[in-house]
Amino acid sequence: MFDNRYDDDPIARMKPRRGPVARREVPLTRGLVVEHSLTEFCGAVIDARDGVLKLEDFDGAVRAFPLADAFLVDGEPVKFVAPKRPQARRRTASGSFAAPQERARVAMPSRIFVEGKHDAELVEQVWGDDLRVEGIVVELLDGADHLERVLAEFRPGPGRRAGVLLDHLVTGSKETRIADAIARGPHGANVLIVGHPYIDIWEAVKPARLGLETWPKIPRGIDWKTGICRALGWPSESLADTADAWQRIRGRVRNFRDLEPQLVGRVEELIDFVSVGR
Fold first, then answer.
1. CA distance 277 to 272
2. Other C-beta atoms lying within 10 Å of the C-beta of residue 173
């Protein structure tokens, strides 16, 4: 007969546990109260650099320990990790702070109209995030000559504003005469027409982005875009050549800083105008 007064081996229970100790990850920050496992010294973190952790206890005593030692927080074994840095707020290409991700807004009644496809692509590239946050739609005019008809169909009014961006809006230009006539017309109070002084939106891209000091001067009588392509040594015989040239130019635009201020200010003005009353 065996004496079974002991159901198990009490010595076995005293053997050290095999395997690594599970340690909770804790960000190592100033002021964190930590206990050094070996010495049982407890104090707040006052410094941690070059592999050394300094703790200060309640009485003001300071002791230094290797960071590789074992430490406890609230009686639990811990592994120190670097604290997470707060994420910097992302800026959009227009320079504004990006809004948090949210469902797209329903398009607002007001609109921004631009002369052509290249204008719309550049506005979308730089201000697209802002436009989506505000629910602003950009539409094409296919030339300033169609502006009066487009506005008559759009029927601007209170709460339904129209912002218009025109090329070559300078004294004596056709675009300026069109803008002045509309401003005096029935829709004038709810329409804002602004523009830049450049013949085409291409020229609103800073020439330095293409390695130029200034944009080439194109003689009268030569299509401006065709003349630019020829002056820069690019293919210029077809519409596809012109489209490729624009993609090359637009590809150099990273954000609003790569555009001339005369364009940037006018687009911002239009966004503010059509956003009023949302």
1. 10
2. 17
| Chain CA centroid to CA 215, Å | 29
- d(Cα 173, Cα 145) in Å, to the nearest integer? 12
Question: How many residues in the chain?
Answer: 278
Residue type, 129: D
Average pLDDT over residues 246-257: 94
CA pair distance 112, 139, nearest whole angstrom: 6
Enumerate the H helices of the chain as residue ranges: 117-134, 147-154, 174-183, 224-231, 239-250, 261-275
Q: Is pLDDT above 60 for 220?
A: yes
Helix axis angle for 224-231 and 239-250, nearest 10°, is 70
CA distance to 28, 69, 145, 167, 253, per residue, from 32 (Å): 7, 16, 70, 61, 47
Say whether pTM exceeds 0.85. no
Mind listing the pLDDT tens digit for each residue in 1-46? 545 555 555 555 555 555 566 788 999 988 899 999 999 999 999 9
